[in-house]
Amino acid sequence: MRTKLAAVSGAFALLVTLLPMAGTAAANHGERTLKLSPQKLNNRLGTTHRVIATLSSAPDEGSPIHIDFEITGVNDPDGGESLETPDLTCTVTGIDDPATERIDESRECRSPSYGGPGESINEGVDEIRGWIDHDGTDAVVEADRTEGADETLEPGDTPEPDGTDVVVTRWFQGLPRAAGLNCSPEQSVLPVTGPDSSLSVDCVLVDKAPRPDVPLAGWIVDGENLGGANDPDDGADDILADYNDLCTTDAAGQCSFTIAAADGEAGLAGLCFWVDEDEDASYHATPPWDGAECVEAADAPENDNQTDVITVEWRRSAPPVALRTLTLTSSKDTATFGRPFTLSGKVQSQAQSCAGGVAIKLQRRGSGAEDAFETIAAGTTAGDGSYSFTRTANGSADYRTIAGTDTECEDASSGAATVETRKKVTLKAARNPVRKGRKIELRVEVLGCEAREDKVVLYKRKNGKLKKLAAMSTNDNCKSVFRRRVWRKTVFQARSPQTRPDFLGGVSRLVRVRIK
Are residues 157 and 47 in the same domain? Predict the structure, then answer.
C-alpha cells in the first residue's frame, strides 16, 4: 500500500512540475490557427517573394509567437525537407505598427524575402510550409508534415483549421524588356451571325532591342473581352481569361486565331491580347502581367509592350458600305534631322474598289502631343491597296493615315507610327593637318537646334576613351567654334544633348587631326 501511494505521489509531483511549462505554451498560443498568403502566386525570375503569416488571434501581451517556414522544390536552400532547420522565420509581435499598411503586426508577420536580382533562382515550383513554433526551439517540430497546399483535399494529420498552412509559388522566365506584341486588324465591323461573324486575328511578337527586330517564338497569347458585346463571362470574372491559350508564336513570332460572336450580340467590344508569360489561365491587374496593361487605348503605339487592344463591332444587318482596315509603319523609329524616311502601309477590304486606287491622306502631330492631327500630304493607293510617303525628319512626331468616306467604302484610319528626330551634328577642322603646337579651329554646326539655346560639348580621345574637353552654346546660326592647341595626332567629337522634346541629342562623326 505504501509503495503504491509513493508511486502516485511521484506521478503527481511530476505533473505539478510539467504544468507550468504547458501553461505557458497554452497561454501564449492556445487554440490559435495559422493561414499563409498568397495561396498561389507566379513570380518572374529576378523578382522577390515573401509570405505573410496570419494568426487567428493576436498573441498574449508580452508573448510574441514565432512562425517557421520550410521551402521544398526547385529553390530549396538546404536541398531537402528539413523542418528541424527551417529555411525562414518571422515573429508576430502582437503590436501593430501604424507605419506599415500592408500587414497588421498585431497578428501578422512577413517572412524574409528570397529571389530577386543577383540570386540564383530556378524556374519551377516551390512549396512553402509554415507552422506555429510553440516552444520557440527548432528541435521539436510542431508542423503538420502531411498537410498539402489544398487543405480540403490534403488536410493532413491534424484537423483543419490548425497551426500549419502550405502555399505554392511558381517561378517563370519572363519576356525580354523590349518585347512588343502587335495584333491586327485594329478595327473591324462584322455581322452578328453567319460565316463572317468570327473575327480573324493575326499577332506578331518581337524583341525591339536589337536592330532589326528579332521574332520571339514559342510564346502563348491569351485574351479578354473588356466587357463589350459577346463577352463570354459578361465581365463578371476578373480572375480567369476569357480566351486562354489562343495561339503560340512560331519561328517568325507570328500566330493567328479567331474570336466568335459567342452570344450573338450586336455592339462594340474591346479585345485585349497579351503574352501569357507564366502560362496560366489568369486575367488580373496585378502583378504586371496577364492583362495588367489592358487599360491601353486601341490606337496606342504598336509594339510598345506585351499587350495589344483592338476593337470589333458586331452589327445586326449587313453594313451599308464595304469594310476596310488601314495599316501604317515607318522605315525608321529614329531619323537624323534632314534625312529621309518612308511611311508605308496598306488598305485592306473585301471590296477591291475600296482598297486599290483610293485617296489616302497622311497626317502629323508632335510626338506625344494632345494636339489634333494635321494633314501634310495626300496620295493614292496602288492596285493592291499599298501606298507610301517619303518624308524628311524635321522633328519628332506621330503620323497616321486616313481613307475618306465615299458611297461604297467605310472610313478607315491607321494606328499612330512615331518617328523620333535626332539632331544632326557636324564637326570640321579648319586646317588639317596642323603644325605641332599650333591652335586649330574646330567648327561645329547643329541642325535642329534653337539658336543660342543649344549646348555643344567637345570630346577628345584619351587613352582609348572619349573624354569631355569643353562646352559652349551655339550662336544665332546654330554654330560653335572651339580653338584648341594640338601637340600630337588627336581625335575629336562633338555632341549636342537634348534640349527640347521634339529633338533627341545628336553626335558628330569622329574627326582626326593630323600633325605636319
Answer: yes
